[in-house]
Amino acid sequence: MNKNFSEDEILTLLNDVNISDNELSELNLSDVDKNNISKDVMKKIKHKNSKWKKIAAAASISGILLLSIPFISSNTFAKMMSKLTIISGIGEVKFDNKGMTLKESKTNNNITLNSMYIDKNKVIVMLSTNNKNKLCNFATLEDNKGNIYKIKLNEGMCKDNIRARKGNFKGNIKKSDKYTLTLGNSKNSFSLNSNDFKEVSEVKNLYTATNGVTTLNITSIKRDKDILKITYYVTDKIHPYKKHPVFKESLNKGTFESEKDAIKHGYKKFPPFPSNIAYPYFELIDEYGHRECGHDSAKPFVNENESLFNLKKLKGKKLKLSLLSVPYWYNSEKLKLTLDIPKQGKKTLNRIETFKGFKFTIISIERKSPHLIKLRYTPLDTNNPKLIPTQMNLDVANICECKGNILDDTNRPNKKVTEDTLYTKNNKDVIGDKLEIDGIIMRYSSVGPFEIEFDLDKINK
């Protein structure tokens, strides 16, 4: 599609677009912002026919707004057009004012402040420790004037025997030269001053690849001897799960050290399985077909937006970065279902349910004993071939013990069947005739492939 539209062409496109409040709501704008955008756009619209009429009739305001930015007041778009930066250990951060990030990590009593970002309306931190220590679920940031901000730390993550928590605070933050970050109610704290921070800069993209829903953005490609380091981030258009917590997964396969350990313990190749839509990873492919997978940094939770490649495994100068899909998962407690449990034996259900635009089938429920039942279910394909659910888990409210088993579906290579074995803690408790489901965890992938070609000779060493 031509990106160099004239103002006259853009206004003609807008002429046939119905701007609905629902579409503007998806952009997370205030009522004032919605009104201003509608007024500013509509003032510019001219009544004329053109070759763009059919295109415009099918266009949404979300797409047209991006084209019409030069003709709408800057105040209206101030919140929408936030700049984007990439912070090691935190990832993508949007900012529309002066933001500061920690220059280097700090460690105190086996707790590491891996990274931190602060501006006038938010604070983001990443903390980590070894497996012998536990991280609390909140921290406080206090400045030298006595202002205190409570930072909620999310659920813990674990990688290479390191536990980590990421947290944030949103609200009005007073500018200060000194801060103290304290973990929970403990005395474990970090003293920070202005010299510990540096100003962030807006990220610039070298390459992009998109499927129309998800875009892979490459911000830098650097070579250090035989190691190629690629820095990236992923952006997404609005999709059915926008109102739920969405978590992006790693696009690499371990570190260089974990690869050595795998080969040492008998693996003939690494990774042991090929990249696929459900479990993809970065691959760098040379002009002769040799492949090298992306690796994580040796420091967990520090360089989360980087992929490292060993150039010794590749030949030639023409390389292609390839990613089959971008995987996601989310957790929601808003799904509520009740199933009848048979008194004995297996009951085939093939019951189709819909949740936030995605469908899944509850295949069967089976009573194995008064104390144990089995439940099988699987996600179904969507109407959008670019968003494919691959695996799911259901949370059961009235039975506290569960062992999940993931089964391959031979008829659907990108789908998994989940078989849950649900049982009571002791034989005195008997499972009743109802199964209460009160939550769902869904894995899904935005399907590519996302591919970028470049010449190794043109990469700065």
Can you characterise this structure?
The protein is mainly beta and 461 residues long. It has four domains: 7-71, no CATH class; 83-199, Immunoglobulin-like, CATH 2.60.40; 207-329 and 448-458, Immunoglobulin-like, CATH 2.60.40; 331-447, Immunoglobulin-like (Sandwich). It is 11% helix and 45% strand. Strands 3, 4, 5, 6, 7, 8, 9, 10, 11, 12 and 13 form an eleven-stranded antiparallel β-sheet that branches. The longest helix has 14 residues, at 31-44. The protein starts with 6 loop residues before the first helix and ends in a 6-residue tail after the last strand.
Structural class: mainly beta
Q: Based on the structure given, which CATH architecture of the largest domain is correct?
A: Sandwich
Q: How much beta, percentage-wise?
A: over 45%
Kindly state the number of beta strands: 29
Cα radius of gyration in angstroms: 26 Å
Task: Please write the CATH class name of the largest domain.
Answer: Mainly Beta
The CATH topology of the largest domain turns out to be Immunoglobulin-like
Q: Report the principal-axis shape.
A: globular
Q: What can be said about the biggest beta sheet? A: 11 strands, antiparallel
How many independent structural domains?
A: 4
Helix content: 10-25%
What ranges have pLDDT less than 50 throughout 5 or more consecutive residues? 1-34, 36-81
Q: What do the pLDDT scores average to?
A: 78
